[in-house]
Amino acid sequence: MKIYVAKDFSTAPTGRFYGDGPYSGERFREELLIPALDSGDKLEIKIDDTSGYGSSFLEEAFGGLVRKGYNKRDLLDRIMITYKDEDFAFYKELIQSYINEA
Amino acid sequence: MLVRFVNQGKREVYLRHQKKLAFKSAVQRKEKRARKAARYRNPAKLVYEPRIDRKVRYFPCPKALNLSRNYDETIKFLMNFRRWGDGARRSNFYVDLRPLQEISPAGALLLVAEFYRWVKIHRKRIKAFDAVDWDPSVRKLLHDMGFFSLLSIPNRSELDADISNAQGNMVFMPFYVSSSADGSQFEKLRDLIEEKVGRIKSRLVLFQGVSEAMTNVVHHAYPERVRFNCWWMSASINFDSSTITVMILDHGVGIPRTLPRKAKLELVRNFLKVATLDGFSDDARMIEAAIALGRSSTGQVNRGHGLYRDIQKYVRDSSGNSRLRIHSNRGSYIYSKSSDGSSRSDLNNFAASLEGTFVEWKFKIPVESLEQK
Which terminus of chain B has fewer CB atoms gathered within 10 Å of its CB, N or C? Predict the structure, then answer.
């Protein structure tokens, strides 16, 4: 499975919960991440071409998976974060840290 | 025996004097409180307005709307208007912008937000009879920020022609307003900035900061049952100093009131503030604590780090010549980074409260962008 955040979700992902705004971390997790994780083995997430990511969005989307019962090691093995633009490299580290810290 | 009587007499005189002093200071304190209360109750005096042939509440604008150089007068003027506008009483009023000679981006956004608030609460526009008499440079900047969309202006076409002829090295961007964390609003603003100065350096991190500031407003700024829960956002470009400012403002309860007070000293200070009503404030320290310690009103460990991780990050990671300024209630926190890479934090407390939170990022336009333009 592959998720291209800018095309499949939004170029401006912002907010933590559904009530925060139209493209929140909770919405991304519930409507894209969980269905993709439940339907396949590996998941590639292409994170570039967006305007950026707030930490609330990333923490809720990825840290929220662990709070929902997904295994940390399993998630780190199955989720592959990809980007062409090197400016997005630090978001990969952030995502991994949110999974580890959750 | 005689000595004892003399001492007793001295003691009585001393006690009478102390009692008198205590009474005097109590009276002075009472008078001071009464003066403060009177100011709060009657924010504006009544003046006769010949154009409508009746007395109106008069709000004269100070010469400068500027948080750095004229904080007290700026906030006093804006808060007087807000208190009056939010009140149940309805009567005519006159906000006199003719004295205004200088307006900073922050001052303009604060003014726009107050007028927006009034327009939304009262569901009508404010008539600007005297817009032709405003300072032309101020009028142009306010027009650029979208202030005129909140006003009903007679002879608008003449005014528009005047504005289009005005020149200046400062450009204000239109304001955006929303009550949700919607990053696409900042995308629009960023695109407008980039049309003028080219690609913003570390634009991802700036988006990260602004989007987190929006999320903070939605989560923490406003109590649940409140009729007004917006944020306002704008930006400016100063070609003289080659700087860009991006600002976001809310009229919420403020960072100091949303944080849990952990340390005993803070509890004591908070008690003193309530007990003395003497303008004592530790708001700046509370803003600093929110950034440094990552405290959140939710008490959850995975939350409350946005101020440090996202909002301060743009300046912290920059190569220099940038500044983050946060005003919240009576406190201000400025984190600046100079060209040699050193950083410093400045805290300040003011007598008047902004009654909300204002966040501003200020940074240099990359030289190559200016040369290309």
Answer: N
DSSP state of A7: I
Whether residue B302 and residue A102 make contact (CB cut-off 8 A), yes or no, is yes
CB contact under 8 A, B306 and A54: yes
Asked if B181 lies within 8 A of A20 by C-beta distance, the reply is yes
B273: pLDDT strictly greater than 80 = no
- Angle CA(B198)–CA(B199)–CA(B201) in degrees, nearest 5? 130
Prediction pTM value: 0.85
Q: Quick: pLDDT tens for B317-330.
A: 988 789 999 999 99
Q: Which residues of B touch A (CB under 8 A)?
A: 180-184, 186-187, 190, 202-208, 211-212, 214-215, 218-219, 302-303, 305-306, 309-310
What is the full DSSP assignment across B309-340?
Answer: IIITHHHHTSSSSEEEEEEETTEEEEEEE-TT
CB contact under 8 A, A52 and B204: yes
Q: What is the pLDDT of residue B19?
A: 83
Asked whether B329 and B354 are in contact (CB, 8 A), the reply is: yes
Whether residues A56 and B206 touch (CB distance < 8 A) is answered with no
The CA distance from B345 to B310, in Å, is 17
pLDDT of the residue at B10: 81
Q: Indicate the helix (H) or strand (E) that contains A61.
A: none
Find, among A4, A99, A23, the residue nearest to B215 by Cα: A23
Residue in B with minimal Cα distance to A101? B302
Nearest to A55 among B184, B206, B310 (CB): B310
Q: Name every chain A residue with its beta carbon within 8 A of the beta carbon of B183.
A: 10, 12-14, 21, 23, 51-52, 54
Contact B330, B349 (CB under 8 A): yes
Query: pLDDT by residue (tens digit) across B133-142?
Result: 999 999 999 9
Q: In chain A, what is the greatest distance between 2 CA atoms, to the nearest angstrom?
A: 32
**Residue pLDDT, tens place only, A16-73:** 999 999 999 999 999 999 999 998 789 999 999 999 999 999 999 999 999 999 999 9
Q: What amino acid is encoded at B54 in this protein?
A: R
Share of chain A above pLDDT 70, in %: 100
* Predicted local distance difference test score (pLDDT) of residue A41: 81
Under the banding of pLDDT at 50, 70 and 90, the label for residue B20 is confident
Q: Which residues of A touch B205 (CB under 8 A)?
A: 52
Take residue B59 and report the two structure tokens written for it. 């709000």
Dihedral over Cα of B293, B299, B301, B307: its sign: negative
**Three-state secondary-structure class, residue A43:** strand
